[in-house]
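Re: that chain you flagged

S.,

Sorry for the slow reply, it's been a week of failed gels. I finally had a moment to sit down with the sequence you sent. For the record, here it is as I used it:
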Amino acid sequence: MGSATTQALTASNAALDAASGVDLGVAGELFAAARALADTSALSGALADWGASSEARAKVVSDVFAPLAGTTRSLLQAVATQRWSSADDLIDAVEELAIRAAAGADATSDVEGELFQFGRVVASDPKLELALGSRLGDATEKGRLVESLLASRAGAATTLIASAVVQRPRERRVRELLARAERIVAASRGRKVARVTSAVPLSAAQTERLAKLLQAKYDSEVSVNTVIDRTVVGGVRVQIADDVIDASVATRLNDLRQRLAG
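Prediction finished late last night. Pasting the structure tokens below so you have them in one place:
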């Protein structure tokens, strides 16, 4: 991520935090705007054009997205008037605002946990992952499929986020889209997400103890999501963003084999 995008994303998120009237309807409109930008390179390029004045870019938003709610248009203008390193970064930012808006509108739900669980369902079902990730499928139908799968199983925010992100993957796998959304939701709530891989389920006490240790290490509240993998043998593997803490027996044995072979 370029420095221009980093600053622009910070400013855009601040605009969302300061906005009033942000609900799931606004989140849905932001997702729709992100899809429109992804589908129309001329439009996303115009909004990311450093050569055009911020006023000109804001007017493009007003003209193109006139049917949307005033809050949605204001947020899109906040994005458009920033300096982005690329048009793709601008599109990602609008999608991130949509995810944050949805999570904020359903603040009492465990959105990141539900996204994690749905990601595990997708990862364990190759046919489902293919159906959602195929370039040939109709985007709207993919969204409806996710909605039907999550009906009564997840909250409104989770359903909106999951059904929206699968519609325009832009060369990303479905599980990656869901994991990114999970991280964005956690960050918007002041948390980090730890993906813990273990051979056996952790007890509630073990999960709580691990969360406290990670919280002390990262100076942040940490949500622990566990993946069961029998090949781990023993111990755990913890991943937070790009950081990996591997204390599994399988890894230690593999390291020993490599040292003996060397």
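What I noticed first: The CA atoms of residues 199 and 232 lie 5 Å apart.

Talk soon,
D.
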